[in-house]
Design a protein that fits this description.
The complex is a heterodimer of chains A (113) and B (115). Chain A is an all-beta fold and 113 residues long. Chain A is 0% helix and 47% strand. In chain A, strands 2, 4, 5, 8, 9 and 10 form a six-stranded mixed beta sheet that branches. Chain A has a four-stranded antiparallel beta sheet with strand order 1-3-7-6, with no helix packed on it. The model of chain A has no long low-confidence stretch (mean pLDDT 93). Chain B is mainly β. In chain B, strand 5 and strand 6 form a beta hairpin. Chain B is globular, with a radius of gyration of 14 Å. Chain B starts with a strand and ends with a strand. Classes of the chains: A mainly beta (113), B mainly beta (115).
Chain lengths: 113, 115
């Protein structure tokens, strides 16, 4: 498809495990964003990638969270030693250029038992 | 820091009625964008409408229009002739380029359109 693709759609894991969430942006989009949406809440910014520039990590809640974007395309968000408060929907978005409208994927629902 | 406030957690109207969702924001920036996103149960965030702060004319997209009051820092969304498919969470969002590319979201309004 032509939209932002995220996998897995749902992930259930035990507390303390590491998880990796994947985002495949729209082809040609230079900007990629990760957001977190806790139950019944708005979206909270996590991290932003633009081309080859250093990412804006200002929204990452702790050092257990990290992300990378390889080859300017696919991005992986990694959460180490997961905690129950990490349970949320993790949404990825991409835009053609910074400041252009962001197009979102369907998200990954992460549940920590 | 910018903040976005949606004061209506839930709203409910009958099909074909007009409904207005409220949004206020706080910023010291003069150049910024405002958005309304729709999130149906499928979870995907769908862009409804976008407004550039430097434009005085209110944005319109078919049945969706905004009332942008820059001095009051208000950005409401009007949905005309509401349809069952409009049932969703609606989020107001703010972005101030070029320094900050992230979207700052409000808490959302759950809108239900009743048959």
């Amino acid at each position: 498809g032509a939209g932002v693709s995220q996998s897995p759609s749902n992930k259930v894991t035990e507390k303390g495990k590491d998880v990796e969430l994947r985002c495949d942006p729209i082809s040609g989009h230079t900007a990629l964003y990760w957001y977190r949406q806790s139950l019944g809440q708005g979206l909270e910014f996590l991290i932003y990638f633009q081309g080859n520039s250093a990412p804006d990590k200002s929204g990452l809640p702790s050092d257990r969270f990290s992300a990378e974007r390889t080859g300017g395309s696919v991005s992986t968000l990694t959460i180490q030693r997961t905690q129950q408060e990490d349970s949320a929907v993790y949404l990825c978005a991409s835009s053609l250029l910074p400041g252009e409208p962001q197009h979102f994927g369907d998200g990954t629902r992460l549940s920590i038992l | 820091a910018q903040t976005v406030t949606q004061s209506q957690p839930e709203m409910s109207v009958q099909e074909a009625e007009t409904v207005t969702l409220s949004c206020t924001y706080d910023t010291s920036e003069s150049n910024y964008y405002l958005f309304w996103y729709k999130q149906p149960p499928s979870r995907q965030m769908i862009l409804v409408i976008r407004q550039e702060a430097y434009k005085q004319q209110n944005a319109t997209e078919n049945r969706f229009s905004v009332n942008f009051q820059k001095a009051a820092k208000s950005f409401s969304l009007k949905i005309s002739d509401s349809q069952l498919g409009d049932t969703a969470m609606y989020f107001c969002a703010f972005m101030s380029p070029p320094g900050a590319q992230k979207l700052v979201f409000g808490q959302g309004t759950r809108l239900t359109i009743n048959p």
